[in-house]
Amino acid sequence: MKFHYCYFSFFLILIILELITTSSLAYAFLSTDYYHRKCPVAEGIISQKVSAWIKKDPTLAPAIIRLHFHDCAIRGCDGSILLNHTGSERTAFESATLRGFQLIDDIKFELERRCPKTVSCADILTAAARDATILAGGPFWEVPFGRKDGQTSLAREASMVPHGHENVTALLEFFQARGLDMLDLVALSGSHTIGRSTCHSFMDRLYNFNGSGEPDPSLNVYYLKLLRKRCKSELDLVYLDAITPRTFDTTYYTNLMRKVGLLATDQSLFSDVRTAPFVEAFATQPFLFNSQFAVSMVKLGNVGILTGSSQGEIRVNCNYVNAA
């Protein structure tokens, strides 16, 4: 399969159309200047805190992006993943490897000191994901603000998030149910250009793919040998991008074309004829990927939002709903 450069303008038009649509939808409920008068220091504080924490621990960059996705994927971007009580999403088995909660708490503490009861936890997490992307070498985008925090979080709903074993059809259905499309699926999967995964998420690909007793045939044989050496137990960690694991770039897509995608869901994006052209476009045109990733992150941040005085609340502590 070869990406023909005559398709460049086609993909660019798609991205421009998505940007126009996304902007109109986001700004119908949210606004980039939402805190300009209410809390003008909000974005600065979030950016400074994210930078300080990631400087100490670079692995927090992909962790925050992932935390944001898990939040938006279940009940919408309402900060429900941050609630820390028995039976919440955060306490579910599927959430066991999520990280970055302390960073969000640190940001919230400072914002409550400077602008009490003003900046929602949902907005903090959304902006932190943007800033984490930038620090990893990814694109900048304006974050529309004005989300309220949800008051419900259920552990049983955490299983709704893709686990790394779904096929493209299932992934598309998951995304479409949240107002996202095929282009968003391929672009947002590109966040796997940084970060790590436990071997548990792909161990079946190494030894018993789909119950066949054999490894996944779509896995590069040399990569297979490497992964078998790295995965002594299911709790061991492996980089999602074996080539440039700490740099936000398009190597993730190049890896898929070389059959070195770590998760089955990743590799399926190049195996499936519906998504393969987007993979190849992003692999060969970094500008397209960066532009679309920014657009798709804005769309993700607009999923299931709570706005207005009658929806949600501004939590004082991101771990708990406000006292009645």
Describe this structure in words.
The protein starts with 7 loop residues before the first helix and ends in a 24-residue tail after the last helix. The chain has a two-stranded antiparallel sheet. Helices cover 47% and strands 2% of the residues. It has 13 helices and two strands. It has 324 residues and is an all-alpha fold.
Helix count equals 13
Structural class: mainly alpha
Q: Taking Cα atoms only, what radius of gyration do you get, to the nearest Å? A: 19 Å
| Average pLDDT figure | 91
Spatial strand order of the main sheet: 1-2
Query: Helix-strand pattern, N to C?
Result: HHHHHHHEHHEHHHH
Cα separation of the termini:
59 Å
Secondary structure: number of strands: 2
Helix content: 40-55%
* Main sheet properties: 2 strands, antiparallel
Shape: globular
Percent range for β-strand residues: under 5%
Task: State the low-pLDDT regions, or none.
Answer: none
Family: Belongs to the peroxidase family. Classical plant (class III) peroxidase subfamily. Belongs to the peroxidase family. Ascorbate peroxidase subfamily.
Subcellular location: Secreted
Enzyme class: oxidoreductase
Main location: secreted
